[in-house]
Write a structure and sequence with these properties.
globular; 5 strands; SH3 type barrels; alpha+beta; single chain; 79 residues
Length: 79
Amino acid sequence: MTLDGFESGRNARITGVDWTSLAEDEAKRLQALGIDEGAEVAILHRGVFGGRDPIAMRLGNMTVAIRRVHAHAISVEAV
């Protein structure tokens, strides 16, 4: 399952990231934030308009907002 389809409020562990589907600068930014295999995340809420962008997620002690296309490249499993 990818992060964009994961249920809000539940914890997940990142099992993989399709780095090739992202622009190089976007991939580097996500990696700098700590988005990588093994990281635990939770969807806090989604945008209310159109494509439901951005997606706000908890990553450690941070709240990070990412675009839906980025969340689609992130595979997760429930924990």
